Amino acid sequence: MLYIGADHRGFYLKEKIKEFLKTANIDFQDIGAFKYNKDDDYVDFASQVAKEVQKNPKQNKGIIICGTGIGNVIVANKFKNIRATQALTALMAQRSREHNDANILSLAADFTDPSIAWNIIKRFLKTSFIPKPNYIRRIKKIQKIEKNIKK
Q: Does domain 2-149 have CATH number 3.30.70.3280?
């Protein structure tokens, strides 16, 4: 399942992305915000998406959107088995999947046009992890860190 969430700065981009996802017949679940609220916090939505993806981190994917995309990545990467990435280009999204097996994509609503965002998302969703020994080794190192510090 694909989970999508955004704060107030990402709200309008999220709504546009939902239109693209529906048109492309991609199943998703909207985690919120469900209306524009200038006082909401990206932390709440990034956490919810991460918790949902975490239930099946190999199959589930997430999209989180805030103004810069930075805060969302910080929050989501606090969760075990989550590898969230920010991507400003389709190639960044592709590499995050191929090299890091990223399962959450963070978008920067302040800097990303909806059509560019859609291209980034399409590339993220269609790209698979490349199980090269060095990529696997690096992910195992990340998992070892998670085991020691994340609850």
A: no
